[in-house]
Specification:
cobinamide phosphate guanylyltransferase activity, 168 residues, P-loop_NTPase, alpha/beta, transferase, CobU/CobP, Rossmann fold
Length: 168
Amino acid sequence: MNHLFVIGGARSGKSGYAQQRAETCGLSPVFVATAQAFDAEMTDRIARHRADRGPEWQTVEAPLALPETIAAHATPDRVLLVDCLTLWVTNLLMAERPIPAACDALTQAIEQAQGPVILVSNEVGWGIVPDNALARRFRDEAGFLHQRVAKTVPEVQLVVVGLPMRLK
């Protein structure tokens, strides 16, 4: 299996599709979580997702250190499933980290990964222009990152209403 980028809207089925691809590739699955539980709803959501994956999955939390996590865990006997890049961009924004440098490090980590990496993200560019500077910056940074990741990996799937459509 090669690297894969799975993108789609909220509740499009992209995470389920990415999980199915990881589980059927024959390698040991590692879930790289970028989410942070800042409230009870998110804590419950994370617990549900963890239970849905099953005991064969190892989970590694990487809310900020995503490139380093990929470098440390991408081995030929594992498949990494990173879910999701838009939460990672949010975390970088909130921590006031330099996003272009982090994106450089991420694409380099993907290119150098010794095993397959599946990256999941939310398409954020199909809506209206946000009404505030922070939301516009988020949309722009996520869009730039998506373009870079799509250029870096050999396969890109857009998932809409549970149906994957191969873009690359």
